[in-house]
Amino acid sequence: MAKLTSRKEDYSKWYNELVIQTGMAENSKVRGCMVIKPYGYAIWEKMQAELDRMFKETGHQNAYFPLFVPKSLFEAEEKNAEGFAKECAVVTHYRLKNDENNPGKLIVDPNAKLEEELIVRPTSEAIIWSTYKGWIQSYRDLPILINQWANVVRWEMRTRLFLRTAEFLWQEGHTAHATKEEAIVETKQMLDVYADFVEGFMGIPVVKGVKSANERFAGAEDTYCIEALMQDGKALQAGTSHFLGQNFAKAFDVKFATKEGTLDYVWATSWGVSTRLIGALIMTHSDDNGLVLPPKLAPIQVVIVPIYRDDEQKNKISEVADKLVKELKSKGISVKFDDDDTVKPGWKFNEYELKGVPLRIAIGPRDLENGQVEMARRDTLEKSFEKLDGLADTIELKLEEIQTSIFDRAHKFREENITEVTSYEEFKEVLENKGGFISAYWDGTPETEEKIKNETKATIRCIPLENIEGTETGTDFYSEKPAKFKVLYAKAY
Amino acid sequence: MAKLTSRKEDYSKWYNELVIQTGMAENSKVRGCMVIKPYGYAIWEKMQAELDRMFKETGHQNAYFPLFVPKSLFEAEEKNAEGFAKECAVVTHYRLKNDENNPGKLIVDPNAKLEEELIVRPTSEAIIWSTYKGWIQSYRDLPILINQWANVVRWEMRTRLFLRTAEFLWQEGHTAHATKEEAIVETKQMLDVYADFVEGFMGIPVVKGVKSANERFAGAEDTYCIEALMQDGKALQAGTSHFLGQNFAKAFDVKFATKEGTLDYVWATSWGVSTRLIGALIMTHSDDNGLVLPPKLAPIQVVIVPIYRDDEQKNKISEVADKLVKELKSKGISVKFDDDDTVKPGWKFNEYELKGVPLRIAIGPRDLENGQVEMARRDTLEKSFEKLDGLADTIELKLEEIQTSIFDRAHKFREENITEVTSYEEFKEVLENKGGFISAYWDGTPETEEKIKNETKATIRCIPLENIEGTETGTDFYSEKPAKFKVLYAKAY
Ligand SMILES: [Zn+2]
Ligand SMILES: [Zn+2]
Question: Where is the Aminoacyl-transfer RNA synthetases class-II family profile domain (chains A, B) (predicted)?
């Protein structure tokens, strides 16, 4: 394998090379769509398993709704439709036929035109709320707490592996409630679930906040989000949870009989995270040698590499390694003993470093004599000698330490890259030279936000929840109008 | 809830009512597509988890390939393309725009026509083999053992919930091998995995066999299958494993350098099972009272219903039930204590019977005095009194017994419904009056098979593997030509 371009040299090239060389994903023959390769998919599976557990723990069930949305349903919630209309894949025909002028080739059969076009779901509010209409008559039918694991399609013009692809995998929660309050509680609860998952499991620190009206999900009353900071100083939206008010209930006429016997529209939320998170994972932790994975997400947590000259040495090492493998597995730690003869240990070291395996154990004949092994941490690249005695316990502790330490490092970086500014001069300077989040007072108007966006490409990533709750007020650095709270600006993925 | 139509009265109506009333699935607003509701999806999740485990145990990894197949790739393997061309959803445009004549409505933007149409995958051989081309240079890159969990679309004209829907969920394995022998071993191995899963986990007896050329997967050299028999005497193909030869390697020019230094085309297999299996599950085990689920597949394995007149009784029962719940959970048994006050025990009994919960435990004050509970088996509807003492162990054993007993019953039914015939007269009579599998000698020609199909609607479901291996020969009952082996005919879903 070729050495990666360094992050300093070209961050975006580094990112692409890393994704390709680790075997996580690649571009496909279909414009803008990626192939998620086994190593990338194994990480996604770990994310899915943990999220699914968290969703079920909070009372949600999975279900599955159609891939296609008939155009008349798609357009029912006007803002939502407007928001996605420009990036929709549209199915217009249901049959191919032989091309008479080109033997062996097929053409779309003009006689198989659909009466109504089908939109490949960019998100499922429309199809789900048209279904919920049949499920909800009374308050007794509420709440409905459903999640769906699915693929969605948004016809993006500029795509990047994991970060922005025409098709991506995600989960989308869609809940229905009898009261506004309950729907808001649900919206916030799922934001907390996302924050806990992204911080605790993926080791990525996030800011919880609310989007400005400009950046809101199309059709939402409020979009809550978690925002993360990448190593190159750009922000990445890591998850969103929307309070949809009664917008979809009104669009699809979903009313329920209240306890009091009146009729009311149902309150809604939706929330989602996607394979995009894998891009965030890479850009938060990895380095010029390759991927760095938090142990909780690593498909292989520990790799054992034997170093030997002859079969006798190999056999002795294998005996020790096999025992260690067994002990680690019984602790639920995933481990690989790589005794492949066809490549050198040095090659293996590079390979597992590239792939982000959190701990590497090397065992040579000298180590055995000394009752020890060499342990290398992927995150810090530190090496140490560890006693064979109690090694499984040492490894277990070390993995926990790495999980924490990876988060702490990212958290420190994030904290160092939130800069307070009070003037537009300062704002532009920080944006250009330092990057990161810029914390500044905002007058609350879309006009100010848009002007700044047009002039600098920075957007309001969120109004941090803690700032909304605060009482401090100030002056907008751009408009010089009074401002109720500080927001976070940044350039973003 | 309404009483189900009986199976005798109208089997297909019974089936539909059962799917709807149990809350497993319903038709959606999209022609031919279903909504898989939480109860149905929970069963699918259990199937997925077990299959996924079995695939990984046999060395496979998951990955994800694009939903769309560009037309030029789709048509590359001609037989495959021909087989699916007539039922393809085709994406032709990537944008909608406002309808100027109809405010608030959208139309397809004629300026956003794709240069090349995209087919929504009906199966993924084409997109996957065009990808494998980039992954395979040498024998060292082989085998590739990949599975994908995905949705696929086949534009069926007559659809039925689970059994035949325009969109369905499935898994599709796609493997690449250096030799023909290895590919055939893989094809057969996966057939065995499917048979073990369907029999051992779903309790559905199957016949392992090979398809006749007429019924082969489009693009395969051989299609292995497992065939099951439904209660109404019709067969259902429960899973297929295809030996694809070098057809896709040739279509996509996928060659590899052999150990000997020559270049050869890669050998392929593919194999899949789908949400259709849920239809087979229903039609194998269920009865006029509703669903019957094998314990291994039941989202709720045990339900506990308290029967009480006052709070004092309720509290006493709850104490015992809570302890039982804890014990069952520690054994990995999923249990629900339904102490809902708003409905009567009788209503609950019906509900859980309808939903196929394998064991129902009823506890009343008199039972407590006698140190016992009432246990009802869903499969046999038998009731018994069981001692409270050691009840969790009793339940565990009973669940195992039910799992076996459900399979045995279905197996007995299947055996009773394989009829040997030697004349066409007999064939037609059995087909009309008894149904089931008809075992008869076949001359091996597509002509005979087609004539019989046209005249009776019965098709060759498979050539049982054991018949192929045998040496017995005979005479075709229809053509009176010599025949090498007996095949199974049936009308099929
Ligand atoms: Zn923090
Ligand atoms: Zn059998």
Answer: 38-294
